[in-house]
């Protein structure tokens, strides 16, 4: 049994950092009430974590090579634990958002070392078993996140979704010090500081621009200024990566059509499949009357279906064309989101989501296990790890931007619906998106509450319909891109392998 303790140690950190991506969703309405937060702040509670995790994955890999993987994993655990404590005691939205960003930094440090630590602990068949268990734990985190968040929020308080990380982090730190091999010697690779900074600025400015557009409009100076800043930072990132000796992303890989199609799917899959969950959770709790636990349980059927399909796809479809598997999966995710929009109505509750969620779950089960493997197969072997790392980054970045885009769509459509029936359509729509429907209803005379409740239900469903339709478009677009661009054949090995890039193999996409 002792030989499996390194696996337990790595899986503890992985489970904790991935569950924090989704565990927050069901607690957002209570956070909004307790912290008197705005809609923008509510988005950043989710986006701050996902964005910092996404933009630092590639750069953190190089840092792990230079400083040591166990050392970086320990540092990540420490940062994650301290940030979780600050989240749990936060007395305002600024403090909570800042701590969430720092949490993402710790998560990136842990996530980027995962495969290197497993490679150092296991060989041969045992390594395959370790990867399989790690993949199962990663998949379970997505299913358990909303449910655990509901349990902690309903039975204790939303602060416990962060405080529960403390004992897990302490256990992981103790295990890391006792069962993982110590780092020896200087590792190859140099931390790409300039590339990391320029990529971070580009991604953060783009996400903030989408959120600002919801408040001030797309023609506002602040919105366009952020878009220009994002574009300039991305140009700088490209120039840096083309000239640096050890880039964190070899831009020549993007010339590969197959990898390009897979990257598009990775960027869009979380938008299509998961970004709308933030707003369905708010709707279910603030208007449909569900508890946090009940709201979390509505997503469980989708997660279970995806796990079952993932297992079937892994055993029955291994070696089949990734073009068909990923392309079909993305189209199913798109159709499932469209089905949610079609079935939802002003009088709907959670049963209206089940059919669409089931179809989305089938698509997720096909896409997720295949993305990283297909990306690695689409490029020369010595660049396979870097390709898998790019896929992981694209997925997390897509989730962060997707939350912002769908939030903007939700609020804009709800505002249109409320125009003429509410004295302040914009403020009411933003309050609705922030989970403050109860406060809005309580603020009007009792004789008018029934009419206001009806108007809010109609506006919320209109916003969700629009969000699901955008998600459906993202899924269908991703499916078409894969079917058109991805090829089945594997490339020939490169004639002269460049410097080893083992560190990027740690960043393979999550099943």
Short description:
With 511 residues, this protein is an all-alpha fold. It has helices at 5-22, 28-35, 39-67, 69-89, 93-111, 114-121, 124-155, 160-163, 165-179, 193-216, 221-243, 257-273, 277-286, 292-297, 300-316, 322-343, 351-377, 384-418, 425-433, 437-442, 449-485.
CATH class descriptor of the largest domain: Mainly Alpha
Please state the second-level CATH architecture of the largest domain: Up-down Bundle
CATH domain fold name of the largest domain: Growth Hormone, Chain: A
What quaternary form is this?
single chain
Main sheet attributes: strand count, strand direction, barrel closure: none
Q: Note the run of SSEs as H and E.
A: HHHHHHHHHHHHHHHHHHHHH
Give the structural class.
mainly alpha
Describe this structure in words.
The chain is an all-alpha fold and 511 residues long. It has three domains: 1-189, Growth Hormone, Chain: A (Up-down Bundle), CATH 1.20.1250.20; 193-245, no CATH class; 268-493 and 501-511, Growth Hormone, Chain: A, CATH 1.20.1250.20. 76% of the residues lie in helices and 0% in strands. The chain is built from 21 helices and no strands. It has helices spanning 5-22, 28-35, 39-67, 69-89, 93-111, 114-121, 124-155, 160-163, 165-179, 193-216, 221-243, 257-273, 277-286, 292-297, 300-316, 322-343, 351-377, 384-418, 425-433, 437-442, 449-485. The longest helix has 37 residues, at 449-485. The protein is globular, with a radius of gyration of 22 Å. The two termini are 25 Å apart.
């Amino acid at each position: 049994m002792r030989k499996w303790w390194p696996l337990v140690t790595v899986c503890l950190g992985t489970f904790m950092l991935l569950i924090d991506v989704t565990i927050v969703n069901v607690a957002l309405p209570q956070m909004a009430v307790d912290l008197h937060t705005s809609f923008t702040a509510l988005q950043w509670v989710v986006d701050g974590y996902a964005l910092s995790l996404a933009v630092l994955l590639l750069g953190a890999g190089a840092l792990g090579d230079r400083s040591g993987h166990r050392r970086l994993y320990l540092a990540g655990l420490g940062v994650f634990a301290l940030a979780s404590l600050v989240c749990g005691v936060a007395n305002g939205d600024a403090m909570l958002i800042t701590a969430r960003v720092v949490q993402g930094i710790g998560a990136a440090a842990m996530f980027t070392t995962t495969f290197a630590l497993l490679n150092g602990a296991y060989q041969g068949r045992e390594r395959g078993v370790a990867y399989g268990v790690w993949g199962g734990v990663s998949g379970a985190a997505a299913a358990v996140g909303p449910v655990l968040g509901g349990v902690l929020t309903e039975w204790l308080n939303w602060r416990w979704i962060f405080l529960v990380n403390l004992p897990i982090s302490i256990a992981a730190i103790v295990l890391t010090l006792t069962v993982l091999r110590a780092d020896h010697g200087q590792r190859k690779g140099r931390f790409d500081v300039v590339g990391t900074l320029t990529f971070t600025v580009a991604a953060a400015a783009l996400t903030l621009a989408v959120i600002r557009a919801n408040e001030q409009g797309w023609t506002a100076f602040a919105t366009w200024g952020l878009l220009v800043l994002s574009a300039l930072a991305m140009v700088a990132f490209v120039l840096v990566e083309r000239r640096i000796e050890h880039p964190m992303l070899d831009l020549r890989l993007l010339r590969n059509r197959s990898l390009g199609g897979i990257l598009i799917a990775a960027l869009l899959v979380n938008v299509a499949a998961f970004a709308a969950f933030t707003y369905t959770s708010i709707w279910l709790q603030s208007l449909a009357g569900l508890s946090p636990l009940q709201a979390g349980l509505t997503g469980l059927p989708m997660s279970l279906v995806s796990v079952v399909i993932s297992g079937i796809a892994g055993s029955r479809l291994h070696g089949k064309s990734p073009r068909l598997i990923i392309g079909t999966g993305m189209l199913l995710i798109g159709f499932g989101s469209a089905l949610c929009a079609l079935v939802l109505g002003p009088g709907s509750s959670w049963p209206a989501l089940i059919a669409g969620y089931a179809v989305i779950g089938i698509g997720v089960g096909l896409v997720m296990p295949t993305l990283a493997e297909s990306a690695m197969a689409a490029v020369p072997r010595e660049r396979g790890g870097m390709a898998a790392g790019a896929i992981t980054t694209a997925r997390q970045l897509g989730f962060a931007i997707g939350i912002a885009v769908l939030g903007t769509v939700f609020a804009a459509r709800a505002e249109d619906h409320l125009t003429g029936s509410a004295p302040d359509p914009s403020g009411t729509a933003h309050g609705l998106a922030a989970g403050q429907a109860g406060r809005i209803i309580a603020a009007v005379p009792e004789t008018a509450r029934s009419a206001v409740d009806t108007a809010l239900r109609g506006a919320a469903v209109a916003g969700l319909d629009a969000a699901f339709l955008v998600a459906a478009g993202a899924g269908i677009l991703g499916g078409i891109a894969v079917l058109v661009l991805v090829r089945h054949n594997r490339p020939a090995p490169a004639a002269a392998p460049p410097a080893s890039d083992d560190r990027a193999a740690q960043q393979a996409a999550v099943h």
